[in-house]
Write a structure and sequence with these properties.
The complex is a heterodimer of chains A (105) and B (245).
Chain A lengths: L6 H24 L7 H25 L1 H18 L2 H17 L5
Helix pairs in contact in A: 2-3, 3-4
Chain B lengths: L16 H7 L3 H18 L4 H10 L3 H9 L7 H15 L1 H13 L4 H8 L4 H12 L5 H24 L15 H13 L7 H16 L4 H16 L11
Helix pairs in contact in B: 1-9, 2-4, 2-9, 3-9, 4-5, 6-8, 8-9, 11-12
Classes of the chains: A mainly alpha (105), B mainly alpha (245).
Protein name (chain A): AzlD domain-containing protein
Organism (chain A): Rhodopseudomonas palustris
Keywords (chain A): Membrane, Transmembrane, Transmembrane helix
Chain lengths: 105, 245
Amino acid sequence: MNEFLRSDVMLAFAVMTAVTVASRLGGFWLMRYVDVTPRVRRMLDALPGSIIVAAALPVAVNGGPVVMFALAAAMAVSIIRRNDFIAVITGMTVAALARALGFGG
Amino acid sequence: MTTHIPKAPAYWARDAIMPGIIAIGPMLPGTLAFGMAFGALCAQKGFTLAEVEVMMATVYGGLSQFVAVQSWPSTLTPSTIATLALLTTTVNIRFFLMTASMRPWFGTLPPWQSYPAMLLVTDGGWLAAMRYREHGGANAWFYVAGGIVLYFVWLVSAIPGFLLAEQLSDPRKFGVDLAMPAFFAAMLVPAWKGPRRAIPWLVSGVVALTVHWLVPGYWFIIAGALCGALSAGLMDEPPAQERPA
């Protein structure tokens, strides 16, 4: 190919795409063969919260005080205003301001 | 507590298109900021804009793209490509769980509709769709319309970042690293259904922290999520089966 789309880079992207597509289709495909009993239903229902906590908690704990404070602010806004949009903006703004004021993390 | 609203099979009706798009609104600032930061990172790492757009369109997993480009090898060999594939898998295998949970809803549609729809699964789009489903929604357009909009916003978002790479060399300065965690934190609030339903969250959190501490890389996401879901399966049906009021 040419220098705009290097062929070795395209190959790497193709492999990354393949594993990602397999992840996206695999769960849906597998559940075709799984009987959704009440127990399975409870497991599926617990997924959103479990994935959120698993993905975000280590980031929060390792991010230091600024990150934890920003996330607490986002949650507080979400509780008070019930508005996800404002909550996300608040979290980002609090972190940006704290860093501009010289707080690390 | 039999709070389960009977869950209807999926159908297509256009009146859910706008609500579906509105529901992913809170994801847009984070998606844009994240995509811009990613475009800037790619410019610094010597990718061309065409390459960046190919990656945005095909891999379509923000966090996985970020960690892959951050640890991009200086030369691509079969072994370094395999390493990238493994890294991508550890970050994106959570999509497996997400589409598994879509089966009871989208499984009633013909495969030529349901499988392509699963390619649109993202953290935000899926969470919004699950919340809609939780409230008894069944219109497939809700999820698909939001997913399509997020996809195109994502495609566009890298371009300004790539072009302004100089100014965006430190995305942390703008709080970009908080976009996704803050969205997650906000989504946790409406997901709260009392302490009992939060026991799996606790399990998930403890496992994720432990794995993050012990194992390098991103295994902690899938480990925590799986253990959380399994613990929910192991718990007995809530005792209040005699439905209070």
